[in-house]
Design brief:
With 102 residues, the protein is mainly alpha-helical. It has a domain of 68 residues: Arc Repressor Mutant, subunit A (Orthogonal Bundle), CATH 1.10.10. A hairpin with a 5-residue loop joins strand 1 and strand 2. The protein is globular and about 50 Å long. The model has no long low-confidence stretch (mean pLDDT 90).
Length: 102
C-alpha cells in the first residue's frame, strides 16, 4: 500500500485517498467516531489507543476540523452502508428467537 504525505505531520492519504494516521491502520474518521461516540478527550483517546501518540491524535483531530464537511460526508456514507448491510442480513436463529429486553 502506498501513501501520500499531507501537510499534517502524522496524517497520510492511502491508495484510496482516505486520511490515515501514519504508521498505523487507523483512519482519521475512526478516531473521530471514537471521540464522538464516547465524548473522549485527546488524553482519553491516548489512553484507549496507547499505540498512538498525543501528536498523532492532535494531528488527526486538526485534519478532521480542517476537512470536517468532507469527512462528515464520508462518515454518513459509511453509516448508510452499514445500515444497508444490516437490513440485508438475517439474524442467526438463536438471536431471532431471543425475546427483546423490557
Amino acid at each position: 500500500m502506498s501513501t501520500a504525505a499531507t501537510r499534517y505531520e502524522h496524517i497520510v492519504l492511502d491508495d484510496h485517498g482516505v486520511p490515515t494516521i501514519a504508521g498505523t491502520t487507523m483512519k482519521v474518521v475512526e478516531l473521530v467516531l471514537d471521540r464522538d461516540a464516547h465524548g473522549w478527550s485527546a488524553e482519553e483517546l491516548k489512553f484507549q489507543h496507547p499505540y498512538l501518540s498525543l501528536g498523532q491524535i492532535h494531528s488527526a483531530l486538526a485534519f478532521y476540523w480542517d476537512h470536517q464537511a468532507e469527512l462528515d460526508s464520508d462518515i454518513s456514507r459509511r453509516v448508510a452502508k452499514m445500515d444497508q448491510i444490516r437490513q440485508s442480513v438475517s439474524l442467526p436463529p438463536l438471536l431471532a428467537r431471543k425475546k427483546p429486553d423490557n
